[in-house]
Specification:
With about 650 residues, this protein is mainly beta. It is built from 4 helices and 48 strands. It has 4 domains: about 290 residues, no CATH class; about 90 residues, Immunoglobulins (Immunoglobulin-like, Sandwich); about 180 residues, Jelly Rolls, CATH 2.60.120; about 55 residues.
């Protein structure tokens, strides 16, 4: 008998035994995007299915014309085959960088260090194709389970890509370690749990397709988290694919790199699974090989929702399946505390103008339409008003700071009138202490050394800093941008009010002197910036004239050898511009044109009014109209 046939027959028998003793429970499929659904699964261990799982599945309809598949592209610069082929990113950063709707990790790349900086050149040592461009050739018979797609998203699972198949006609391809399901048979049993770490109980990232090649399944299984999910063996992973109807499947990756990310309703990365690396360190791992997809928003009663922002106004448009009313809920946070007046006219093409917005600010919004007695609300979206601002530097990176290592619990040291004359300094940034003999390479400008604790031989747990700055402008509408070179965590105060925590616990009302940071940036050294922007209520303490910024910097653990601090602070001061409205005439008609966006066109029979919105309303230039015998006057309203 053919040995391969014997192996598959045995696997099929064991698979029958498994299904009769183990219970897999899959929740309802929930639409995420057009042609993309999500479901979660759990199991009751037993019958040779020993591990408790929490599984996350994505089902992709490959026949949907708007689905576009994507994998890690070639490096934009310095691409060298078999040496440095692609850039390393966390899965969240990969999704955000390429504006994908779904992304996962794939394996088989070097270097395999966990937390390298974004964009680090990496080498994929298996077949990888991105949008018809071969990123990496298959290097060997080992780790050669490939899934390839044509430009029309027709999939082919190549269980062992050796000798390598021709890449002609392949539009997208990623490669994993080995097959899990072959022609409807669970072949995971052939991998012994003792034949290598990869085949033991681990978090899993895997991918499979149905026999008719219509549906693509993306699967992650959490692991290494007692009380939540232990991880899966190979045949357990394969069982999930068989449970949902996949006919072929391969293992892509696993371990702490297992991460499934989707785009949330405001365009930001959202992790669906619980990564063991994030649970352990607070950070996603850097991955050199990814797979993802583009998809359109899931259709509903409200569709085609779009924003057209200007500096202080925005026009929101959408369509509905049947005539309905128009209203927008909006605000600077996702609770959407503001709302426009409801327009009760029943229409299918909707236009609503928002006014009195802040320039250069982030807003969230949702469309609301009543269809008879039924209320329809769209998913929440995000927009940024035009950034017509003056950038005013308030604190430069080499600004001098007063500092102390004293425990200041109960002392109002963050307030504007506090006397810091007894503190050390003033020392210009960056300020640092490193018990290994000097600052790490790349920490620049390392200007002011600070003392370590002679009692321990390590840095003090907390260093406190104060600096004064002057704001000449009215603080109304201003945003502050902080660019920090900081190791490890910090709490920021403005004129005595806490305004931000960076890598510090959020729960306690007060951070104590001995509190430790919950993470670190830039692979443990302050070699890349932490940037954040605050506005509105977050900086309500900002005043015209003299201000004080106070920062307490905390170490990651008591035996960490270094602390670094320095920042630049820039004010974004809004500049309001006026539009130009002009008339271009031609035979029998005229066209109104104007500069800027976010305006509503109004008309009147005389310059003093009464002014009314031109029916529509008209919110975009140009606007063609016909000449009449009577005088008509036009203006723009915000």
């Amino acid at each position: 008998m053919n040995p391969t046939f014997l192996l598959l027959t045995l696997a099929a028998l064991l698979g029958t035994s498994l299904s009769s003793h183990a219970t897999l429970t899959l929740g309802a499929w929930v639409p995420l995007f057009q042609g993309v659904d999500h479901a979660m699964g759990t199991n009751v261990p037993g019958g040779g299915f020993p591990n408790p799982h929490v599984a996350y599945l994505i089902r992709v309809d490959l026949l949907d014309p708007d689905i576009r598949l994507f994998s890690s592209p070639r490096l934009e610069e310095d691409y060298i085959p078999n040496v440095q082929e692609t850039g390393g990113y966390t899965v969240s950063d990969f999704l955000a960088k390429h504006r994908l709707q779904v992304a996962i990790n794939a394996g088989l790349f070097d270097p395999s260090e966990y937390y390298l900086p974004a964009g680090t050149p990496m080498d994929i040592h298996a077949l990888s194709v991105c949008e018809g461009v071969v990123v990496s050739e298959q290097a060997s018979a080992a780790e050669a389970a490939t899934i390839a797609f044509t430009a029309d998203n027709v999939p082919t699972v190549i269980h062992t890509n050796w000798p390598p198949v021709s890449t002609t006609g392949i539009h997208t391809a990623v490669t994993g370690s080995y097959p899990l399901v072959v022609e409807g048979v669970n072949v995971g049993y052939q991998y012994s749990a003792t034949s290598g770490h990869i085949h033991r109980t681990n978090p899993r990232t895997a991918i499979g397709v149905t026999q008719d090649k219509r549906f693509l399944y993306i699967l992650t299984i959490d692991g290494r988290q007692p009380g939540h999910s232990s991880g899966a063996l190979d045949y357990e992973t394969a069982a999930w694919f068989l449970h949902v109807g996949a006919h072929n499947a391969i293992n892509l990756d696993g371990g702490g790199s297992t991460t499934l990310v989707v785009e949330d309703s405001v365009g930001q990365p959202l992790r669906l699974n619980q990564s063991s690396a994030v649970a352990d360190s607070g950070r996603e791992r850097t991955v050199g090989n990814h797979f993802g997809l583009y998809a359109k928003p899931a259709p509903g009663f409200i569709n085609d929702l779009a924003a057209h922002p200007d500096d202080t106004t925005a026009v929101i448009t959408w369509t509905t399946l049947t005539p309905a009313t128009s209203q927008i809920r909006y605000g600077t946070n996702t609770s959407l505390p503001l709302a426009t007046l409801q327009d009760t006219a029943a229409v299918m093409d909707h236009t609503v103008a928002l006014t009195d917005l802040k320039p250069g600010a982030s807003y969230y919004f949702a469309a609301v339409s009543h269809d008879g007695t039924t209320l329809h609300v769209s998913p929440t979206r995000a927009m940024i008003t035009s950034n017509r601002v003056d950038l005013v530097p308030l604190i430069e990176i080499n600004h001098p700071w007063k500092f102390t290592t004293t425990d200041l619990q109960g002392v109002p040291w963050t307030s504007l009138p506090f006397d810091d004359s007894a503190w050390e300094g003033e020392g210009p940034g960056l300020l640092w202490v490193d018990t290994r003999g000097g600052p790490r390479s790349g920490i620049e400008p390392a200007t002011t050394p600070m003392p370590s604790d002679p009692a321990t031989g390590f840095p003090y747990p907390t260093y406190s800093f104060r600096a004064r700055f002057n704001l000449a402008a009215d603080p109304a509408g201003i945003a502050l941008v902080f660019t920090n070179y900081l190791d490890d965590g910090a709490v920021f105060y403005l004129n005595g009010a806490e305004i931000h925590r960076l890598r510090m616990e959020e729960a306690p009302a007060t951070i104590t002197y001995d509190a430790l940071a919950v993470g670190f940036g830039c692979d443990g050294d302050a070699t890349c910036p932490d940037v954040f922007r605050l506005e509105g209520e977050a900086i309500a303490a900002l005043v015209q004239g003299g201000n004080v910024l106070a920062v307490e910097v905390h170490n990651y653990n008591a035996r960490s050898p270094d602390i670094t601090f320095g920042l630049s602070l820039t004010a974004q001061v809004p500049v309001v511009t006026r539009p130009n409205l002009a008339i271009a005439t031609s035979a029998g008609g005229m066209t109104l044109v104007w500069t800027g966006g976010g305006f509503v066109l109004q008309e009147a029979s005389q310059p003093t009014g009464t002014w009314t919105d031109v029916p529509g309303p008209i919110v975009q230039s140009p606007y063609p109209t016909t000449a009449t015998a009577a005088s008509r006057f036009f203006r723009l309203r915000k």
